[in-house]
Amino acid sequence: MTQAPATCRHDYAPPPWRCLAIELEFDLDAAATEVTARLQLEPDPGQPLQPLRLDGEALELLELRVDGDPVAADGMRIDPAGLTLPGIDRACTVQTRVRIGPERNTRLEGLYASEGLLLTQCEAHGFRRITYALDRPDVLSRYEVLLRADVARYPVLLGNGNCEDAGRLPDGRHYARWVDPEPKPCYLFALVAGALDSVRARHTTRSGNDVAVAVWAAPEDVTRCRHALQCVLRAMRWDEQRFGREYDMAEFNVVAARDFNMGAMENTGLNIFNARYILADPDTATDADFSDVESVIGHEYFHHWSGNRVTVRDWFQLALKEGLTVFRDQEFTSDMNSRAVKRIEDVRMLRARQFVEDSGPLAHPVRPNSYREIDNFYTATVYEKGAEIVRMLHTLLGETAFRQGLDLYFARHRGSAVTIEAFVAAMTEAGQRDLSGFLRWYSQAGTPVVEIRDSYDATTRRYEVQITQHTPPTPGQSEKQPLPIPLAYALYDARGRRIERALAGDAPVHEGLIELSGARHTLCLEDVDAAPLPAFGQALSAPVRVRYDYGPDALGRLASIERDPLLRWDAIQRLATDAILARGEAGASRLALLDATAVLLEDAELDPAFVAQCLQLPAFDTLVDEVVASGGTVDVDRVWAAREELLDELAERHVERLERRYQDMAAVDPDAMNAPAIAARRLKNTALDLLTRMDPAAALAQTQFAAAATMTDRLAALRALVHADASAAPQALSAFASRHGADALVTDKWLAIVASAPLADAIGRVQALMTGRHWLPRNPNRVRAILGSFARGNPVAFHRADGAGYALLLGAVAALDAANPQLAARQLGALENWQHLDAARAQHIRAGLQSLRSAEPSSLTTELLDRLLAD
Ligand code: TRP
Ligand code: ZN
């Protein structure tokens, strides 16, 4: 496979041709679909004239006309990436008719078939696999789409915007005409055809627009769409209330698809979802699934403004829509549920995924400078770090000015394709402050390290804080500059009371926030009775690593500061990290951790979901990343063993407390779906995990499995049984499989449990799954459930010293790559920190990566391999 050429951010030039309108006609059929496109094109008078070039891949051209006249063979040039019409220098209508084969489309981009449905995925470059077009996001066109298909096979025909007409045709066919009222880039084009059923509701926006909302799924799944529908209505209401954003069309359709490369897609008025983020009922979905549905529905709906009505000028601006929209979906979830628990989850994920990505060979700026395959840049850095940047702006400006900035951004740029500068400029105006330094957050890769030292002088009664920042080098960026960092802080006195007086010095301080900008700052507080207890960077006020030598005593005290759950959680995470990685006084850290968790378990006033978070130790990946960030070589076995030991110790020390809390929580409405019941299940199942360590027969897990009233409880018990290798595990697995065997999404769940079980024969079990009837290499959810859960969720087995885990992953990537490069390439992320492993493991991986590289894989996989192997 040839490598794609690099696209560079600084080479951007406006489109030389515009496409004002597109008329599309589809004769839909799984084996062969014909697409007729009429593009109304004109050269941009402000740009130097260039030959008309249309993008197109894997299209069979049947007909080409310009202004109605057929084009002779010598009037065009066709190559694998598109079509050039050299003779054309004026406004014209180009009509093409092409044939495509949805059924043979295994890449799941463009038009493809999934369980009897025909559907599209166009972001980032799928549209060119449907028809010849100007496939770039800064070309906005008005779309009119006529869909024709067999009425029996494809009774429902959906498109973007509003359905203006529909009816019967001869020969058992029918049609629907869809018009999207506002111009859009082609990556937001979508259609769906198939036997779908829906649940429906109406929403009236606050200025009176009446919207027909429908969530569509296969008829047998439609009873599981109610929750998704409620989430759409909630998201619509929330965006009106919190950000003043109203939906502006007559229809909003959401469709569930079983085969889908990512989470979901925000096509205007026709969002298409991976079924796992739509289908949910208490018997088949866990509490976590319900909440994932809420956040992904929110995310895609919020794109209607942040992404669709205001879109991206080029793909380097991806974080403009994704960072902002993740921030918005995080806020939605926070406003609907517990803000503290949501922030803890997000910080945990940021540290386990984004920090790791940012410290390895795949590190890249939130706005990269070049790419070969943009599909490789839908990353934790673009999404999650992108959202953290928006969050910092929100922190600095405050809700009111941030909201004004967003209003200004949407009002000013509605209907256009813009850059990150446009967003920052709107925030600058609304916040009336210079944010130019902030753009560096978009251009500089790597996680900054903020180092803090303090001292107290009893004779002068002066407390002084010295803060430095530096960012480690990343690929292609050896020199780093200081960044503007809003660092939250608080000082406590000996009795744990907050000291209200603010630090002062060479950085602005207001309301518990130090605004760092330089490489070094000094601040102090005069007239203090004793050395205060400081907290720095609470709630991760910036995506940085805060280094401050607290010591176990101080962390133990922070863990008991009652009004700040995030501070408590983070103090506990630090204690656990020090204990596991044997840093400083590791023994004392362990004891302080045990004390702090005892207090949390005894406190019946606390949100049980929060207590559950505090009992979960830092993710294995985060611990490894801590070692990497402090310059060490990772001993995966030791990190794993130390983490396990600490979990054992927590279980042993707290066994009675855990049993008590388990029983208390089990008494809360076991099958209710409200917040208190969900929180109770969280703590109960966290306790179950720990208690099973003390329970060789796994009796409690067995009892829970047999009596479970929800999927949450059933699955948690199954996981406890399988991961403990309990003698009851095989029977529980087969009971579970036979109860839910018909449902692919539930099957994914038990497969993921097996693939992530840290057992001696784990690799054999995964191999068995990958050669058995459950291995469906064309179904991304299934591949992720087995292969992804193994590579990302089973570190001991994946990192087996003989390299068998790596071989399993790389063999699977090689096998998947030809059919679905997006799916295959993504799996390589599990190796992103390979260079920091011990020499023997690193050698296994290097050899494996090189051998895959020499087999000439897809251009996506090649790009990632080259970055992974670059030194
Ligand atoms: N824009 C989508 C989102 O974040 C994600 C996305 C990008 C995607 N590329 C994709 C989804 C390819 C499916 C397939 O919401
Ligand atoms: Zn998105």
Can you offer a commentary on this structure?
This protein is α+β, with helices and mostly antiparallel strands. The protein contains 26 helices and 33 strands. An 8-stranded mixed beta sheet has the order 6-5-9-3-2-12-15-14, with no helix packed on it. The protein has a 5-stranded mixed beta sheet with strand order 17-18-19-21-20, with helices on one face. Strands 28-31-26-25-33 form a 5-stranded mixed beta sheet, with no helix packed on it. Helix 4 crosses helix 12, helix 16 runs antiparallel to helix 17 and helix 23 (804-817) runs parallel beside helix 25. The longest helix is centred in the middle third of the chain and has 34 residues, at 380-413. The protein is globular and about 90 Å long. It starts with 6 loop residues before the first strand and ends with a helix. Bound molecules: tryptophan and zinc ion (ZN). Zinc ion (ZN) is lined by residues 299, 303, 322, 325.
Spell out the blueprint of helices and strands.
Blueprint: E1 7-8, E2 17-27, E3 33-43, E4 52-55, E5 60-66, E6 69-70, E7 77-79, E8 82-85, E9 92-100, E10 110-114, E11 117-121, E12 141-150, E13 156-159, E14 162-169, E15 173-184, E16 191-194, E17 197-204, E18 210-217, H1 226-243, E19 251-257, E20 264-265, E21 270-274, H2 287-302, E22 310-312, H3 318-336, H4 339-358, E23 370-371, H5 380-413, E24 416-418, H6 420-431, H7 440-443, E25 449-457, E26 462-470, E27 485-492, E28 504-505, E29 509-510, E30 513-516, E31 520-525, E32 533-536, E33 545-548, H8 551-558, H9 565-580, H10 586-602, H11 608-615, H12 620-629, H13 636-653, H14 655-666, H15 675-692, H16 699-707, H17 711-723, H18 729-740, H19 744-755, H20 762-771, H21 780-793, H22 795-798, H23 804-817, H24 821-827, H25 839-854, H26 859-869
Parallel strand pairs: 2-12, 18-19, 19-21, 22-24, 25-33
Antiparallel strand pairs: 1-23, 2-3, 3-9, 4-8, 5-6, 5-9, 7-8, 10-11, 11-16, 12-15, 13-16, 14-15, 17-18, 20-21, 25-26, 26-31, 27-30, 27-32, 28-31, 29-30
Helix pairs in contact: 1-2, 2-3, 3-4, 3-5, 4-5, 4-12, 5-6, 8-9, 8-10, 9-10, 11-15, 14-15, 15-17, 16-17, 17-19, 18-19, 19-21, 23-24, 23-25, 24-26, 25-26
The protein binds tryptophan (TRP) and zinc ion (ZN).
Tryptophan (TRP) is lined by residues 121, 123-124, 261-262, 264-266, 299-300, 322, 378.
